[in-house]
Write a structure and sequence with these properties.
2 helices; mainly alpha; about 80 residues
Length: about 80
């Protein structure tokens, strides 16, 4: 669990949750029938998810590389 100690990984996972959370919420609520529109078209939430997803992937990748590099260094 060294990866979760990295700030890069934490920021990346946070971006993933913040960016995709609203879109997934709308999709799930529409699927179970709670959302007013049964066939929503959340363009803004989709764009938010798309932009934050790539930033999240980059942050997590940087964090993984830094953690692996720190593991290889002799103590």
């Amino acid at each position: 669990m060294d990866y979760l100690r990295s700030w890069w990984v934490r920021i990346g996972l946070g971006l993933l949750v913040i960016g995709s959370g609203p879109l997934l919420t709308v999709v799930i609520l529409a699927d179970i029938g709670v959302w007013p529109d049964p066939n929503p078209n959340p363009i803004g939430l989709g764009l938010l998810c798309a932009f934050t997803m790539w930033a999240a992937i980059i942050c997590v990748a940087i964090g993984v590389v830094l953690v692996r590099r720190a593991r290889r260094q002799p103590r």
